[in-house]
Design brief:
- The structure is a single chain.
- By secondary structure, the protein is an alpha/beta fold.
- The chain folds into three domains: about 5-260, Metal-dependent hydrolases (TIM Barrel), CATH 3.20.20.140; about 275-365 and about 640-765, 3-Layer(aba) Sandwich (Rossmann fold), CATH 3.40.50; about 430-510.
- The strands form four sheets. Strands 1, 2, 3, 4, 5, 6, 7, 8 and 9 form a nine-stranded mixed sheet that branches.
- A hairpin with a 2-residue loop joins strand 15 and strand 16 (about 565-570).
């Protein structure tokens, strides 16, 4: 049996209260019960109690039960036995009203006992009351499990008004509430409910009293108003609770306000599993939270796979079990908007580093390394140029120092054929416009791409176009200068080629004297070029390069489903230049002073890592070292942080599992069905209680949830709407199902008997006055 949202009125009086209330209840008699029932039916009341002042009318109750059994009023499902007691909880304080709802199992015996025991302690005058001790002894003598609901007609902290309120009867009402003496507080006005909620918000959840309301009707002819002379809005009197219309249902409802009160009918989610047929027996499913329990091998996971319709590894096995047990579910069509988390999925995904990735491959955005690449590549190039320039200066200076040349004027005379010289330096030159033009072209391309994005307003679009036009104009001007230099270079190379060709043709025509003169002049020209080269090298000598800013932001962040998924490159937080020197140079050259001492190729060979014995390949090895350095620095580390938390999600299985379930259930309203196999795996009981119960509890009335569990906390503390207990007898599966308070199916007994720790969880859940129900 599944529970539903029912309307409850536990505060109705009859003529039995006449000794205290006078003629206001004179017409609320046994003979007029059908009039009351008609009014209850009209107002949709499903569960009610007649709670007279310090009295219990056995005959009235028995007649009312006959009317319920007649089924003339189908909306009214059950009547609970109750009394409204006048109690003074502390000497010298005012009395308060406490409604006691009793667990009557055998009406002919238990209900009669209530009447008899009260008669032995009967109050005769309207001003009389029970002391706390006398009240407790009376309840003990009745000997039935009881729910106590105290009146609170004002804010607890308010010293004025509400003379029958709990706060008027004891100096420390908060202390009494915190020990669970009172199960619920009855209010009459919505404004009082709001004040009480605010005052009780800091109570521990297990000890926070439920707030409930009742009609306090005395004259049945004007139900649900108090009497004919007072106009009230009937809708303000009815509490709605998701429970069976039984004492145990009310008990679970009152002791679980978070899961049982203020429930709503999810009218949007009609596309959920409504029932499952197993061997010809229908098992109803709640549109809320359904928990599948049972011993190992009972078919729990198989049932989930049938729901999920995805079982690639066990397809034959699942099909065989489904066919043998004639398992089908309604609606039979596919539930398109469903989400399935198989057993061990989280562990396997963590090991593969694919957790969260299944849902959205772009959860972790790529890190933009542009600034790092530009900064470190530029620094490495400047450093290499520093070494090359210094080495060139040293080599050319040394070459000039070692050069000697004898001047022989007699060899300097005019040849029969002109002698042309075209030194190497004539055709060797850098085009300084290449790099700048490339940078401008890159900027222009980025601007063109940005202009294709439908993001900017018309003014911003126009400004970006102006910038692009300006960049293109500058790029055109720089391109013209580059082309001019390229043309000059081509002309020089043409001249050099022509000179070389002329010199080769002249060799066969000159005399011996001419040849000697020609050779002398060539040597003289070479010396001149060495001098010129040394002068140029001296002028090109550069300072040791400055480091770029190491504030490289190698981070990407993506907000999704209440979490921030972040990737951070190593260089964002690491000592970039220390790692650069370690990758590029041997240990003796990992500081700037040592690097400044490098003067020649031998120094380079010793300094640059992995150059080996051949210093001629140092530039190639330099690039390899640089590439390896950048690759290591770009390694990223992923982290997940809940948006409202200050710390990252930890790396333990339990912490990641909790984050995963919270992430998966964030947009549950977009789904019809969530299926999870053993969500408690790897999560401690404390975290299950503190967090996982809340995660799944918040899905109530939003999406249908079906999960398998071996942990009683996810049955009892989560207050599952439906529990399905499976048994497997040699391949034949049988199912018992119902809500927690379903005594016919004995759901709580099954939880206690078949789940480790189930007995303790159930006992704690149902403990009222030291008795289990």
């Amino acid at each position: 049996m599944l529970n539903e949202i029912i309307k409850v009125d536990l505060h109705i009086h009859s003529h039995a209260s006449q000794y205290k209330d006078g003629d206001i209840v004179k017409n609320s008699t046994t003979e007029n019960l059908r009039e009351l029932f008609a009014a209850l039916e009209e107002n949709g009341i499903n569960l009610f109690s007649i709670t007279d002042h310090n009295r219990f009318d056995f005959d009235l109750y028995m007649e009312a039960r006959k009317i319920i059994e007649s089924d003339d009023f189908p909306c009214i499902q059950e009547l609970l036995a109750g009394v409204e007691f006048d109690v003074c909880l502390e000497t010298g304080k005012e009395r308060c009203h406490i409604i006691a709802i009793f667990n009557v199992r055998d009406w002919s015996i238990d209900a009669k006992r209530i009447e008899n025991k009260i008669a032995t302690e009967q109050l005769e005058n309207a001003d009389e009351f029970y002391t706390r001790g006398r009240f407790e002894k009376l309840l003990q003598s009745i000997g039935l499990d009881v729910i106590l609901i105290a009146h609170q007609r004002k804010a607890i902290s308010n010293p004025q008004g509400g003379k029958t309120s709990l706060s008027e009867s004891i100096s420390d009402p908060y202390g009494l509430l915190q020990v669970g003496y009172i199960d619920a507080l009855e209010y009459q006005k919505p404004s009082v409910e709001g004040m009480l909620q605010n005052e009780l918000k800091d109570f521990e959840e297990d000890f926070r009293p439920t707030l409930i309301t009742g009609s306090d009707c005395h004259d049945w002819s004007v139900y649900p108003r108090h009497n004919g002379s007072i106009a009230q809005d009937p809708e303000t009197f009815f509490s709605e609770i998701k429970c069976l219309p039984t004492f145990r249902g009310l008990l679970l409802g009152i002791t679980s306000p978070k899961t049982r009160l203020r429930r709503i009918h999810n009218q949007e989610n009609n596309n959920h599993i409504q029932k499952v047929s197993i061997s010809g027996k229908d098992v109803l499913f709640s549109p809320g939270i359904n928990v599948v329990i049972g011993e190992n091998g009972s078919g729990k996971s198989t049932l989930l796979e049938i729901f999920a319709q995805q079982s690639p590894k066990r397809k034959r096995h699942v099909a065989r079990i489904r066919e043998a047990n004639k398992i089908s579910f309604s609606p039979a069509r596919n539930i398109a908007r469903s989400d399935y988390v198989p057993q061990a999925h989280i562990v396997e995904s963590i090991h593969k580093d694919t957790l969260f990735e299944k849902e959205d491959q772009t959860l972790y955005k790529e890190v933009d390394h542009t600034a790092f690449d530009r900064g470190m590549t530029g620094y490495a190039d400047d450093l290499k140029n520093y070494f090359s320039t210094n080495i060139s200066f040293v080599e050319k200076t040394a070459d000039l120092e070692n050069a000697s040349f004898e001047i022989q004027p007699d060899l300097i005379y005019a040849l029969r054929f002109p002698q042309l010289e075209c030194p190497d330096a004539f055709t060797k030159g850098k085009n300084p416009h290449e790099v700048r033009l490339k940078s401008l072209q890159n900027i222009a391309e980025l601007l063109r791409e940005e202009l294709t994005v439908a993001y900017y307003d018309s003014q911003e679009q126009g400004e970006l176009e102006e910038i692009l036009n300006a960049v293109e104009r500058i790029a055109e001007s720089v391109g013209t200068r580059r082309e001019k230099d390229n043309n000059i270079a081509r002309i020089k190379n043409l001249i050099r080629s022509t000179v070389d060709e002329y010199s080769r043709g002249l060799a066969a025509k000159v005399t011996t004297v001419d040849a000697k003169s020609k050779n002398y002049k060539e040597q003289l020209s070479a010396v001149r070029q060495r001098v010129i080269g040394a002068v140029i090298a001296a002028n090109e000598k550069v300072d040791f390069p400055s480091r770029p800013s190491d504030d490289f932001s190698g981070t990407s962040a993506n907000d999704r489903n209440g979490f921030v998924f972040t990737q951070v490159a190593w260089y964002s937080n690491g000592d970039v230049f220390r790692k650069f020197y370690e990758n590029m140079f041997v240990s003796a050259y990992q500081d700037e002073d040592s690097l400044k001492s490098i003067k020649n190729l031998e120094d380079i060979r010793r300094a640059v890592r992995n150059v080996g014995s051949d210093s001629s390949n140092w530039e190639q090895q330099w690039q390899k070292n640089l590439d390896a350095f950048k690759l290591q620095c770009k390694e990223t580390k992923k982290s997940i942080q809940e948006i409202k938390a200050s710390d990252n999600v930890g790396n333990t299985l339990g912490e990641l599992s909790l984050a995963y379930y919270k992430y998966r259930t964030y947009n549950a309203g977009n789904l019809d069905l969530i299926i999870v196999d053993q969500p408690e795996d790897n999560i401690s009981n404390k975290r299950i209680l503190d967090q996982l119960v809340d995660y799944f509890g918040n899905l109530r009335d939003k999406v249908q949830v079906v999960f398998v569990t071996h942990n009683p906390l996810l049955v009892v503390n989560l207050d599952a709407d439906n529990v399905i207990f499976l048994e497997n007898d040699d391949g034949l599966i049988t199912a018992t199902w119902g809500c927690l308070e379903d005594e016919e199916s004995g759901i709580l007994s099954l939880v206690a008997e078949h789940m480790d720790g189930g007995k303790e969880a159930v006992e704690k859940r149902l403990k009222v006055y030291g008795k289990n129900n």
